[in-house]
Structures are given as C-alpha cells and as structure tokens.
Amino acid sequence: MTRALDPELLALPLRAAADAALQAAQEAGVEHADVRIERLRGQDLALRNGRLERLNDAVTVGLAVRVVHDGTWGFSSSPDVTVDEAVRLARAAVDTARTSRPLNSEPIELAPEPVYDDVTWTSAYDVDPFTVDPAEKVALFAEWSQALLASDDVDHVDVSLQQAKEGKFYADLAGTTTTQQRVRLQPRVTATRVDPGGGFETMRTLAQPAGRGWEYLTGDHHDWQGELAQLPELLVEKAKASSVEPGAYDLVIDPSNLWLTIHESIGHATELDRALGYEAAYAGTSFATLDQLGTLRYGSPVMHVTGDRTTPHGLATTGWDDEGVQTQSWDIVRDGVLVGYQLDRRTAQQNAAVLGTSRSNGCAFADSPGHVPVQRMANVSLQPAAGGPSTEELIARVDRGIYVVGDKSWSIDMQRYNFQFTGQRFYEIRGGRVVGQLRDVAYQATTTEFWGSLEAVGGPQTYVLGGAFNCGKAQPSQIAAVSHGCPTTLFRGVNVLNTAREGGR
To answer: For a tag on the chain, would you pick the N or C end, based on fewer CB atoms within 10 A?
Structure first.
C-alpha cells in the first residue's frame, strides 16, 4: 500500500532550507554537516469509567543543523523553518563547534556511508489515526468501558491511547536526502476490582504498542473483544489466588512479559555508547564492555538476539536513521555469546578495529528537531527456534514452575546486571499443567545467570513483537519508542521473591 506523506511536512521549504544551511556550513569549512526538518504530531486521550478525562493534540515543527568543524560537534535548532533561519542556524552551529574546540580531546570522525539521493520511506500502516475523528475514538473506548463495567467484578475501567506521526526530512553535505514518515499507537485498557476490605486488584490488556494505524483498534491484528471479555474473570481469579512461596522455580515466560526483560538486560546493555561509559551520569553504563566482544557468555547456546531497524510494524523501524544511514538487521548475541553492539556513525568509526566494521548499523535518533541525534535502541529481539515447541509444550516440560504473563514493575542496576521483574499475572505449573493463578510474584537474577538458565525457546508460532513508547536516555533527556520480539521461553531454576513479604506486608 502506498501511504501519502504528510502534505503539511511537504509544504515546508525542505530543500531550499537544507541547501542554504549546507552551503553556509560548507563555506565555513566544516568536515560534515546535516540538516533535519521535522513535523511531529502526537495525540493522547484517556477515559475513566467511560468518560473522557484527557485529549491532547500537539504538533512540533522545527529545523536542526549539526556540523563537525575542526573535529568538534556543533548544533543549533529553531522552530522557524525558513531559508534565512537555516543559514543562521548553520553559522550558529559552526560558532558552537569553534567555542567547544578547546574542550574537545576526542576529534569527531564519522563512519562512511553510501549516498542515498532523494529516497522516501513510510512505515507499514493502513489508516492514519490522525484522519479518524476523536469522537469516533472516544465512542469506541466508551463502549469497551461500559461492557467491562457491566460485570459485577469490575469497579473501574481506564482506557488510554497514545498516537504519533513522525515526519522527517534529512539532508547532508555528502548528498544524501531522505523523506520519511512513521505512525505508531499504544492502546491500553486496565480493569480494577475493589474488594470490601478496601484492597484492590488490576488487570491490563496484553495488546502491545505497534507501528500500525487505526486498523489495529478495529479488529485487525488483535482480538480486542476476546481479550476484554476475559478481564473480569481474570481479576476474580487473581483476587482469590494464593501468595507465592519464595524459592527457585522453572519459569515459562510469555512474550508479553519477556520483552521488557530483553529491553532492560540486553537492549540497554548493548548500546555501545553506554558500554563505553558515555551514559554514566544519567542512565548508567553496562557490564557488557567492549573488551568482552566475542568472548562474553551472555546466555545459553539457544540464545540468538538480533538488532533490527527494518522489521515491519516495529516501533524503532525506519528506512534511514538520523545520520543518513540505511537501516539494517544484525546479530547481537549468537549461540549465547556477545557478538555485536548498537552503533551510530561516531562510535562505529571510533571503535572500528575492535568491532571489525567501520559502518554504523543505523542507530542514531533524535526525538525532536530541538535535540541532537544520539545512539538509540533498535528493535532488539530474541529469535524463535525453527520448528520449536508451542507454549503448551514448554509448560508440559515443567514439574514445578510458574507461567509469567504481561509486564508490570521492574528494577535493574546501573550496569544492567542485577534485576527483578514482576508481571500482570502468574500461573502455577504442577506436573506439566497450569493449575491456577498465583500472586505477589517477582523473579530475580543477574543478567548472565538468567539468560544462562534459558533452556528452550518456542517456535515462530509463539513469537510476539512487544515494546514501549517511553524509553528514556541522554542529557537533555530524550524519549524513543522501541519494539522487542520474542517467543515463549523456558528458564530453569530462577529465584522467585514474594513481593508482599519483601514489602513488609
């Protein structure tokens, strides 16, 4: 399907402004210059018990110029997208680089990249959600809410939807020009049950955020009616569930939970800028340091993790990154061993001798025209086993264990090594069969211990692409959306905590 680019983005003086900025930067003697012109639209709505609580609709437009002058970065941006402003920004970026040069002890060199002249890319969606009347959205979610509230076992219902459309034009001195558009949605429905004693339980839908359009909310790609119909019964079962006995358990983990563990313990840990220490002041470093590339035993031999910015409907999927690099797929962990990192053009060039490549894998991204691109996460995913087992077959292998479904809270240290995760619901497994829900469950491990206990990964039929809209990084802070795919998995002998007892309850 051909998806039309936003006419309001195309109406901006894209090429004239970019050409003027690049010419001004070139005249100033820069080694590199690039220009981004962006039009970003976001819409966020929320309902409480079927009544609209929030509807925000915002548009951000701007122009950014980045240069390398005398081996030093310079950057400047403005919401004013005009030819005159583009020239001013280019000169301001060069002035910034000149001012910063005495403080720069590491001259900037960027990995080479082929030139892509006048290329266009759009993400995979059918219906632009911004063409749908907000009243239609509110009516659909009110209908869902009333259906849930009709149950005696549901006291409150919260529905939220985040939507984004990201349009970007990029040009650089080498001759690359790209025009791109991405659409994404994050829908959530949470049902709450209040017991007579004042306690409460919640249960949230498992539908994942996706690089899709409004069709995702109207029955394509997800059975909303079926999932919503289950929530009241699941809430009652959770309220009556036994509190878990802490100890070592075999865990069968659903993709709706494991995606977050992948994000925190693999995705962030294999960002090369973090492994090199550049994120230490804000978001921490990584135990997976560059000197361990090719030798670190990250997990068991069945562990195969890829970085991918090309997978359909991925939240981090795009055609070219914010440095003009064509996006790719590559191995991060192969046969349980660390074999790759996520790179931008600077870290790729700087560490080419160790990495064995001098090319970026397309992981530069800025969340707005007011921010400089930084190395951001790809869609980092655990691959399924060809012809691998079903979820039921994995459960059948467990004598005493827990089946973990859905994400909730989590905690991990600043080196991405010691962690614990909870979930939406937990099912006790006895003798290869699910026998009912448990509560107060959290699993705890170190990253290498946890992934080393991975015994089996499910087949492609169990694979689901999960993810989040709100991954934070960098100073000033930036937010990015990212997906993580995985199959159902079986881990042996993982430590399980009772969160109620740990919390003194």
So the answer is: N
